[in-house]
């Protein structure tokens, strides 16, 4: 782990036990063996279909959910097995912006009390200094000083999300999980929130794990992107590389579905339609989790899970990029292998 790495996840798993039904107790493999790292001041974007485990991964990293297996290193310290008491010290540095800006705010508290509460819990500052800090945070997120006495229901969705961001920043964290922070907002408000997050990152050097469905927005805000499918990280790399030249067949299909505002470009683009349904994380297929829908599936794909191969800074979990299939190393021989989806 380099000194510039703020977070490193190694083979992280989160399984949920489900009781009842004909078969009795079963296990949902929500996150299954994911590894990646986030640098200081970097945004790592996470994309994938609904139910692939993105939010579960974010909550497990913050220990909201206890990991089943694997390691979580924050600033070089393994926090995956820390007790609740020892983990309390890291709560200040690891924070989260929740998807629903209204459900995550206490309706009985004023805005001032909501933002001040984390500082009270962590015994930060004197009461006078906390009130001053609340005013500073309101200004940081673009709200007015008199908003401090209002309640959450008196604000719009965009303003409530700004309140949630201010509460997250109250503890001066080093790493924030942004769990679809713009999905419930209007398009114009989404841009404001994204600009706010980027501005805060530039000034304070905070690292983000940015979870979203909007591929264009993820590409815009992220330095690197990871693509998840059925609890697995199938591809990761630089944002421009993944967005313009995806390697994994699932990444290609996912990016081909992104809406394009230009109708002429949209008509000329080749849309990749995947056949079949997404398998249940309770009964995942043997071998590669994507082989049941992959147009390039081979016999070995159903027999064993592919390793994660590294190609010039990219990581991809697909047999097509194993040494056996990459005989021509120059240019990675990417397009000849997947020319059907280019």
From TrEMBL:
Keywords (A to Z) from UniProt: ATP-binding, Nucleotide-binding, Transport
GO biological processes: peptide transport; transmembrane transport
Family in the record: Belongs to the ABC transporter superfamily.
PROSITE patterns linked to this entry: ABC_TRANSPORTER_1 (PS00211), ABC_TRANSPORTER_2 (PS50893)
Protein known as: Dipeptide ABC transporter ATP-binding protein
ABC transporter domain ranges (all copies): 7-255
NCBIfam families: oligo_HPY, PRK11308.1
InterPro entries tied to this protein: AAA+_ATPase, ABC_transp_ATP-bind, ABC_transporter-like_ATP-bd, ABC_transporter-like_CS, Oligopep_ABC_C, P-loop_NTPase
UniProt GO MF annotations: ATP binding; ATP hydrolysis activity
Pfam families: ABC_tran, oligo_HPY
């Amino acid at each position: 782990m380099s000194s510039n790495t703020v977070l490193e996840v190694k083979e992280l798993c989160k399984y949920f036990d489900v009781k009842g039904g004909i078969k009795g107790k079963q296990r949902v493999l929500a996150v299954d063996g994911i590894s990646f790292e986030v640098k200081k001041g970097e945004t790592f974007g996470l994309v994938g279909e609904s139910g692939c485990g993105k939010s579960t991964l974010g909550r497990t990293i913050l220990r909201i959910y206890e990991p089943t297996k694997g390691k979580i290193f924050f600033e070089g310290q393994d926090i995956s097995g820390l007790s609740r008491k020892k983990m309390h010290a890291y709560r200040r540095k690891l924070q989260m912006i929740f998807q629903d800006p209204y459900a995550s705010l206490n309706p009985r508290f004023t805005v001032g009390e909501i933002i001040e509460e984390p500082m009270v819990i962590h015994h930060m500052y004197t009461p006078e200094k906390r009130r001053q800090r609340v005013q500073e945070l309101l200004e940081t997120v673009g709200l007015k000083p008199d908003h401090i006495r209002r309640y959450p229901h008196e604000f719009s969705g965009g303003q409530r999300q700004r309140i949630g961001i201010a509460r997250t920043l109250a503890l001066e964290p080093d790493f924030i999980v942004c769990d679809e922070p713009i999905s419930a907002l209007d398009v114009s408000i989404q841009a404001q929130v994204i600009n706010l997050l980027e501005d805060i990152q530039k000034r304070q050097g905070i690292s983000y794990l940015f979870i979203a469905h909007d591929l264009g927005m993820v590409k815009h805000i992220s330095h690197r992107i990871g693509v998840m499918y059925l609890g697995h990280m199938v591809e990761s790399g630089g944002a421009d590389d993944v967005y313009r030249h995806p390697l994994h067949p699932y990444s290609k299909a996912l990016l081909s579905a992104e809406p394009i505002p230009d109708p002429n470009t949209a008509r000329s683009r080749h849309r990749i339609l995947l056949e079949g349904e997404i398998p249940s994380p309770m009964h995942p297929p043997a071998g590669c989790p994507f082989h049941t829908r992959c147009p390039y599936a081979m016999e070995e794909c159903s027999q064993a899970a592919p390793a994660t191969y590294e190609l010039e800074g990219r990581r991809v979990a697909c047999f097509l990029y194993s040494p056996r299939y990459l005989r021509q190393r120059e240019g990675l021989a990417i397009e000849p292998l997947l020319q059907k989806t280019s």
